[in-house]
Amino acid sequence: MTERPDQSPITSPRSERVRKVAALTGRSARRKQGRFRVEGPQAVRSLLAHRPELALEVHLTERAADAHPELERLAREAGVPARLVDEQILRAMVRESGPADATADGGSGPAGSVGTGSPGALVSPQGVIAVGALPPEDPDAATAALEALPDDGPLTVVVLHEVRDPGNVGTLIRTADAAGADLVLLTRTSADPYSPKAVRASVGGLFHLPVLTGAESGSLLEALAARDITAAATSGYADSELFDVDLPDRIAWILGNEAHGLDEETLAAAPLTVRIPLAGHAESLNVHTAATVCLFETLRRRRAGA
Amino acid sequence: MTERPDQSPITSPRSERVRKVAALTGRSARRKQGRFRVEGPQAVRSLLAHRPELALEVHLTERAADAHPELERLAREAGVPARLVDEQILRAMVRESGPADATADGGSGPAGSVGTGSPGALVSPQGVIAVGALPPEDPDAATAALEALPDDGPLTVVVLHEVRDPGNVGTLIRTADAAGADLVLLTRTSADPYSPKAVRASVGGLFHLPVLTGAESGSLLEALAARDITAAATSGYADSELFDVDLPDRIAWILGNEAHGLDEETLAAAPLTVRIPLAGHAESLNVHTAATVCLFETLRRRRAGA
Question: Does B289 touch chain A (CB under 8 A)?
């Protein structure tokens, strides 16, 4: 899928190679090229340090190379070329082309988005871009990742099911990482975590823990049960409150769509449903707020129990 | 500041009255007109039910009036006109004009935004819009709101200091509401909670609890201390961890800028600083995630202690 990178210097912002990197804003181009784009020093550092096997090439300005000397060292250690380019070339590599991209990324609804910047907006790559090899979307890989988890001991899995906004997907991955989740699985109806918007919002989280796409929600619930991991969901109608209920040591939080929440079928199939207490007049929480409360309560219990 | 609403039917999307409602996207127009715009059935319902004294007029489609019969009833009870308009008139009332609005709203940075939709995007008002009287931005009002709080018993105050993105401001107000905060104060360098983007993101939260703008951070810390409310901030360098530390019954969580966090001076002046434990490889949390963890831990303790 991914060709050997061309080593010659890039001199024109209109060159074929620049256009191919810019095209990675769209999902179909990512699939066709088998590559994805990573922007900014923090995310590129995370890619090179945590998932060097995915890295294909790094483009950076002289200024960014001076400000972040570790980037060239990490690229060398990962065995990938780090090329100095002009700021205008870097900017041409992230030029997003507006509405078409939002569709390509799975649609960015106006309600409940926690995305980082609007499609079509000029996003600064802060002097550095990397291109990585796109991991295949494969339901078997999701199951295999579950099977690779330890047989006993505490575990936290996060499942994103029908989370449509790439910014939300990225932010949820960042929060899952911060709360010490062991694995993030996305069903095939969720937005692509390898869209530039999701990668930006994850602030490196995408490379800090295993994130697998293309899972099937039905077989996923079975696979979780087979690994003795309790699937848990939030619902405003649940009898048990999060802060009172016993949380299992091995838990998978299933998070649903921004607007509609989790579908009835998945909710009914989850062995544990909890209600997050709401104290004011708010009728609901957005998916990221709910996930944050559940994941940090899980972390708090784990630390209290350790 | 606010004139008596014209009672005649609106027939053209290009009429002066439609343009004046559309202009409320910009901060200067809101100040000049002394009015702000509320979109969607849920937010309009919250305005009419919780802050009827602010409501000036309601515009809705026949379809929305049928789907949400309580809106006309609430408008009647609030003593404000509810006028049936065509869908195209309603859409013209929310037409946002792009980059200029982002600036008017205090700038929508690409990093760390948890906003709801991009400026310039077509946002559907879901059949209903209200116009409200803009409360004045007044540092004395912020102090007066603190003085109006009970003299003893538990309290949670949320202070937004230099939170620049209107979507973040709205989402933080929504979460403060859900976690049972008693009061939200914004310093004058924060984004305007009455921008349509912030109002949308707050999902009615803006009308569920007192939200005051224009506070001065220095005198605010003194006013909090005078009311026996402990100002608390998060810092990655704090010695105490949130989950281990004793939280005072009367607490004000001070939340800072999306990119830079809280300024050194404010951080140093806060009597309590805590660290949110991070379990993975994440280096930080965004301001909304950090706020959610702190506010719901405060709520959890309060309920456990009650």
Answer: yes
Contact status, residue A30 vs residue A24, Cβ threshold 8 Å: yes
Q: How far apart are CA B222 and CA A14, in angstroms?
A: 57
Backbone angles phi, psi at A149, to 5 degrees: -70, 155
Q: Render each residue's pLDDT in chain B as its tens digit; 306 residues.
A: 445 555 678 888 889 999 999 999 999 999 999 999 999 999 999 999 999 999 999 999 999 999 999 999 999 999 999 999 999 999 999 986 544 443 333 333 333 333 333 334 455 788 999 999 999 888 889 889 999 999 999 999 999 999 999 999 999 999 999 999 999 999 999 999 999 999 999 999 999 999 999 998 888 999 999 999 999 999 999 999 999 999 999 999 999 998 889 999 999 999 999 999 999 899 889 999 999 999 999 999 999 886
Of B113, B174, B277, nearest to A299 by CB-CB distance is: B277
ipTM: 0.88
CB spacing of A123 vs B113 below 8 angstroms: no
Residue in B105, B222, B115 with CA at minimum distance from that of residue B159: B222
**Which among A156, A193, A255 is positioned nearest to A43, based on CA atoms?**
A193
Rounded to a whole number of angstroms, the distance from the CA of A281 to the nearest CA of chain B is: 6
Q: Identify the CA nearest to A202 among candidates B27, B93, B255, B289.
A: B289
Q: Which of B119, B176, B278 sits opposite A178 (nearest CB)?
A: B278
Phi, psi of A29 (to 5 degrees): -65, -40
**pLDDT 10s digits, A36-75:** 999 999 999 999 999 999 999 999 999 999 999 999 999 9
| Residue B306 touches chain A, beta carbons under 8 Å | no
Chain A residues with beta carbon closer than 8 angstroms to that of B181: 280
User: Which domains can be identified in chain B, with CATH numbers?
Assistant: 16-133 (3.30.1330.30), 139-305 (3.40.1280.10)
C-alpha distances in Å from residue B196, one per residue of A35, B116, B213: 38, 10, 16
Separation of alpha carbons B45 and B215, rounded Å: 28
How far is Cα A165 from Cα A107, in angstroms, rounded to an integer? 6
Continuous H helices in A151-237: 166-178, 196-202, 217-226
Nearest CA-CA distance, residue A110 and chain B, Å: 4
CA angle B170, B264, B244 (to 5 degrees): 75
